[in-house]
Amino acid sequence: MVLVLIEHDDGAAIDTTLEAATIARDVAAQEDEPLEAVGFGTVPGDVADELGEYGVDTVFAVTHDGLTDYAPVAWAKSVRELIDDREPSAVIAPGTDRGGETFAHLGAIADLPLAANVIEVDVGGDEGYELTRQRWGGSLLEDARIDAEPNLLTIVPHEVTAEPATEAGEATLESYTPELADEDFIVQVDRREESDTEGVPIDQARVVVGGGRGVGSAEDFDQLEELADLLNGAVGSSRAAVNEGWRPHDDQIGQTGNKIAPELYIPAGISGAVQHWVGCKGSENVLAINTDPEAAIIGKADYAVIADLHEVVPEINRILKEKHR
Amino acid sequence: MNTLACIKRVPETGAKIVLTDDNQAIDTTSLGFTISPHEECGVEEAVQLAEETGGTATVLTLGSPEADEQLRTGIAMGADEAIHLETDGEQWGPRATASAIAEGIEAADESFDLLFFGNESADQENYQVGVRVAHTLGLPIVTGIKNVEIDGDTVVAEREISGGTEVFELPIPAVLTVKEGLNSPRYPSMRSKMQARRAEVATATPERSEANDVEMIELETPERDDSPAEVLGEGPEAAEDVVAVLEELEVI
Ligand SMILES: Cc1cc2nc3c(=O)[nH]c(=O)nc-3n(C[C@H](O)[C@H](O)[C@H](O)COP(=O)(O)OP(=O)(O)OC[C@H]3O[C@@H](n4cnc5c(N)ncnc54)[C@H](O)[C@@H]3O)c2cc1C
Ligand SMILES: Nc1ncnc2c1ncn2[C@@H]1O[C@H](COP(=O)(O)O)[C@@H](O)[C@H]1O
Question: Is residue A115 located within the same domain as residue A162?
């Protein structure tokens, strides 16, 4: 059997869970074994139905008096117990904050290796799984081998396409109560706080206007703000602009910032370092504005304008405002 | 309060990653080296907390003799002590790395109240070294932290979630893995860089653990669409064409 960790919200499985389930089903098919799932709290029937469509036979819903909220060690120990009961050959989780954290604990607790950031698995022969995993934010791939019982894998979010099984089945829901100790709850979500940021969040905007070192100052971001406003979009930035103190880190796009996938991304005064590019490569279209025709971003973009952003952006804004009138 | 930050020397890759002929590593002949932005924030937080409470901050790395450069950057940023777990520069898996780091921490002169790791290393992204070290040391840990407050014997750690944050409270001593944005790391001054050159670094040569680990076969660069961009124009005159593209893409 192959076991997949699921996360659900508002009565539905989250996207990354369905992506992980898609890979897990493929691994199960290669192993010629059934696919089972484990989730936490009350798993709604709708979620079980959805997972059935993804090829899951049984969904174990973990409940425990101590489990009032997300608690990584308690989650890991629950999965560990289920591993002992069900003896899966692979255990797979979405590489989300929770999936990744739970599996790091699971690896430590169960004394097992863990392959993180996986995008492809070949179950292979006697020497374990051969897999492909992402490194450097996805700008580099590693072919690697893992050979343990079971193999622990986390799947990179938003790299594989979630696809239901060709033959939809039905998943049965079973509740599962692990044995947990008080110490397993030392780390548990204590409370949540809402953020007070306004406007379209950068990871949801249809258009993102990015500014880099070429913008030159915090004030000069005004022109980019105006363009973003005119396009109902959001402003993002490179790490260089954040380091200069021109933008907050929340705006940063890249390996250690936001990953965006808008319909259009307009990087202005950004050179296109790999660590920036990995944060915006999911954009449908990229229109780069740069004074340097040799800048890497020009080679990566769909459209390019070779110009001083301080000259061309106000001009674009002027034409857009005229059209608005 | 004594603090520790674990940092890793990684190449500063530019616009394109070039691999060595055997596909076992990045070709670094023309590259500089740095540490991950996450880890820079870890160092900054460790230094600030030590300064505020009158304790010491230590930086630790496991890596080639050249990784000394990154430890000295940590010292220039305000760390008081440095530990170098020296290797021959081969890539170690996450389990071997974690067990050597845990041993290095246990063998240190200091005991640490808060230990900082990056949420993930820049080059390998294993998302696990900090967690494994915490288990070996028997300490509580929470990952992906972007805000840290100390409240007596408790550390209040916040993690970003969609639309807000979730808050964890851990008893000290504890381990935190952190993300960039936690703070604004300082730029070391010329003077502190000069002083850091003379600082002492404690060195040890750990054995590489034989524990079953993920094993790298080889690296590859992903395929990329290299078709050149359509150049819309040069100078401010290009604005008309930009607006035409915006219309074509139906974003206005
Ligand atoms: C581990 C690691 C993680 C990183 N994570 C990130 C990340 O998440 N996000 C990120 O962005 N970076 C990240 N970086 C940094 C990255 O490597 C680059 O240093 C950074 O992206 C450069 O920012 P930039 O393009 O704004 O600046 P530069 O590289 O300095 O480029 C400025 C560009 O502006 C152009 N320009 C100058 N003046 C004008 C003008 N008047 N009009 C138009 N164009 C102009 C120049 O031709 C140049 O192309 C990371 C680095 C490391 C090592
Ligand atoms: N060789 C190393 N030396 C020091 N710290 C390391 C090393 N490898 C990993 N770490 C720490 O562990 C974190 C997570 O690494 P990883 O599990 O590889 O993603 C990094 O951000 C560092 O803080």
Answer: yes
